[in-house]
Amino acid sequence: MSETAIARAATLACFSDPQDITLLDGGITNINLLVRDGSRRFVVRLGDDIPEHGVMRWNELALSRAAETAGVSPAVFYQEPGALVLDFVEARTMEEADVRDSDNLTRIIELVARVHQDLGNHLTGPVLAFWPFQVNRTYAARLKADGSDHSALLPDLMDTMADLEKAVGPVELVVGHNDLLAANLLDDGKRLWLIDWEYGGFNSPLFDLAGLASNNGLSEEQERKMLEQYFETPSETRWRAYKAMKCTSLMRESLWSMTSEIHSDLDFNYSAYTRENTDRLNAALSEFREL
């Protein structure tokens, strides 16, 4: 697969003399490569639509271009079916411990708020909505139809999700990133960048905040400070809705991984990732039910 990916990157029409093509670590839905062409370097993202995950590359492209214009993501250099080429940014990829650092967390929340407030102003065409309850129901239906090893868990999960949706209640819509893993945050020493827009779309801001917390192991104190910074109101005003969305985010990550166990060909331990996220989900549900 890696040899095929390198060969594909070398033949992209945007390059005149592609050299030093290397695979980048971290992709769990795409193959990412670094390419030098003359004096410039680029990141090549190879991947077709992924219907089982609701990933549509036209949507990723539209959001990537809007994020570039908003100044929060690297510039789009080239696109063709199955390939997206971005400017390379000399920056460090964050890890979960970096996100938990108090100074970094403040900067990240500022970036997320900026995305939510500004990105929609730079869209020039339609983009998808990412409603996590519909996303989770779709995953559950597919997993049942595919005979997933996790099928026995699905009825209880869907019953639980109905309660979570009621607890979230009415929402405001923003253009969200919807995949706030540490690996999607870059720090160049002066500013932060947010990359990988394949799940982007209209959603509640609570989903990005919940995903940021659940994916990176934030403490309750950090979660409350995050809500207070983002909304500029006491955390208690949205605490129960936020905790419900946190459970929903973890359920989505668990169902995503269960689905990837069946459908993905990438070299990644999805079974271990499923266990990690279902453990996090069960812990979050216990906390939510105590509210």
Strand content: 15-25%
Strand order of the main beta sheet, please? 1-2-3-5-4
Would you identify the regions where 5 or more consecutive residues have pLDDT less than 50?
A: none
* Morphology: globular
CATH class of the largest domain: Alpha Beta
CATH fold call of the largest domain: Aminoglycoside 3'-phosphotransferase, Chain: A, domain 2
Put simply, the count of helices is 10
Count of discrete structural domains: 2
Which secondary-structure class do the elements indicate? Answer: alpha+beta
How far is it from the N-terminal to the C-terminal residue, by CA?
A: 48 Å
Topology as a string of helices (H) and strands (E): HEEEHEEEHHHHEEEEHHHH
Protein name: Thiamine kinase
Keywords: Kinase, Transferase
InterPro entries: Kinase-like_dom_sf
GO molecular function, one term: ethanolamine kinase activity
Report on this model:
One of its GO terms (molecular function) is ethanolamine kinase activity. InterPro entries: Kinase-like_dom_sf. This is Thiamine kinase. Pfam families: Choline_kinase. The chain has 291 residues and is of the alpha+beta class. It has helices at 2-10, 57-70, 96-100, 102-118, 132-145, 154-168, 205-216, 220-231, 239-263, 270-289; strands at residues 18-23, 31-37, 40-46, 76-80, 83-87, 92-93, 174-176, 185-187, 192-194, 201-203. The strands form three sheets. Strands 1-2-3-5-4 form a five-stranded antiparallel β-sheet, sandwiched between helices. Helix 4 (102-118) runs parallel beside helix 8 (220-231).
